[in-house]
Amino acid sequence: MQSTKDERSYAALIHISSIVGALIFNVGNLLFPLLLWFIKKDESAFIDEMGKEVVNFQLSLMIYYFVGLIVGILTLGIGFILLIPLWIALSILTLIFALIGTVKTLNGEIYRYPLNLRIIK
Question: In the list 12, 45, 72, 109, which could disulfide-bond 104, CB 3.0-4.6 Å?
């Protein structure tokens, strides 16, 4: 998929916005990329594709964390002993994946996040 330098820069901003958003407030990791994607999704197929990928990944993470929370509650807290290290590892991987996505996008490549549910088609 061909893309201009401006499209690649904007798509990279969508990837980075998930990190920045998470640092600013709790659901910023989803809201920032969602807003940026929504603004430009109709102007570029590349931005649309990368925006969907980032938003789907952030939605997937929310689902994974929520399911873990339910498991922790249903096991009367015992599940949290295993889940907390997994959540920490997932948080670190999320940062790494977003940085990889940013670099690949700046190079004009389509980046697919691992463990990504395709919620938005």
Answer: 109
Torsion from C-alpha of 92, 113, 19, 108, nearest 10 degrees: 130
pLDDT in tens, the chain (121 residues): 789 999 999 999 999 999 999 888 878 899 999 999 999 999 999 999 999 999 999 999 999 999 999 999 999 989 899 899 999 998 899 999 999 999 999 999 999 999 899 999 8
The model's pTM is: 0.92
DSSP 24: H
Tell me how far apart the alpha carbons of residues 51 and 94 are, in angstroms, rounded to a whole number: 16
Nearest Cα to 37, choosing from 109, 105, 97? Answer: 105
